[in-house]
From TrEMBL:
Assigned keywords, A-Z: DNA-binding, Membrane, Transmembrane, Transmembrane helix
Protein name: Helix-turn-helix domain-containing protein
Pfam families reported for this sequence: HTH_3 (PF01381)
Domain HTH cro/C1-type: 10-64
SUPFAM superfamilies: lambda repressor-like DNA-binding domains
InterPro entries cross-referenced by the UniProt entry: Cro/C1-type_HTH, Lambda_DNA-bd_dom_sf
TM annotation in the entry: 103-122, 128-147, 154-174
């Protein structure tokens, strides 16, 4: 409770009734000094005096204690509520835009990965380069979309999933479509076997024989 504010409010109420401190002192049967001490915030009216002041000024006790009329308090609360709602609305719009941006980045990353796997031949190193680039874009999009609490788990899970998908795509490419693996870390050539190339991945080694001919064959080394 602000005693100075309450005292100033009591003074304002007295002046609205065009009363002097002496006039009010007579009405309440107290001394002029008591009225002066109330209005300067030096002392406070006791409970009985608060009831008398409330009746005299036709104002509620909570309003007397708070030092302002209820209408003003209500307006202040309304303004505070409006500010809070405006801030909340701004944050909500910002969050929605962030989610939309993250979703678009995620879609773009997936598009890059699919394009790399479809457009570039498996022999081209650009296929794996663009696929990995697309993976980083996907992970960045997920970082924007996912709540901070689950961000690390989600990103790690997505990395693991992409790794498995790329490994499976290489395996299927070799065993079903007679193609060399895209995600290889080493390509070697043995001069003693001029018609043979060796492609090493993390989990298997593929051998390509007679490349560029009708008899071209790609198989997993046993």
């Amino acid at each position: 409770m602000d005693q100075i504010k309450m005292g100033a409010f009591l003074k304002e109420l007295r002046k609205e009734k065009h009363l002097t401190q002496e006039d009010l002192a007579e009405e309440l049967h107290v001394s002029n000094r008591t009225i002066s001490r109330w209005e300067t915030g030096t002392s406070l009216p006791d409970i009985n005096m608060l009831v008398m002041l409330s009746d005299f000024y036709a104002i509620s006790i909570p309003e007397l204690i708070s030092g302002e009329r209820k209408e003003k308090m209500r307006n202040q609360e309304s303004n505070e509520t409006a500010h809070v709602m405006a801030a909340y609305s701004h944050d909500e719009i910002k969050a929605e835009r962030r989610k939309m941006g993250g979703f678009l980045i995620l879609i773009f990353g997936i598009f890059i990965i699919l394009s790399a796997l479809i457009i570039f031949p498996s022999e081209s190193s650009w296929s794996s380069i663009y696929a990995i680039l697309g993976s980083f874009i996907v992970l960045f999009g997920l970082c924007i979309l996912v709540n901070k609490r689950w961000r690390v788990q989600t990103v790690v899970g997505c990395m693991l999933l992409l790794f498995i998908l790329f490994t499976l795509s290489d395996y299927v490419a070799v065993t079903q479509f007679n193609q060399v693996p895209r995600f290889r870390y080493e390509t070697s050539y043995d001069s003693r076997k001029p018609n043979q190339w060796k492609y090493k991945t993390l989990f298997f080694t593929a051998i390509q024989t007679n490349p560029g001919t009708r008899n071209e064959k790609v198989e997993i080394q046993k």
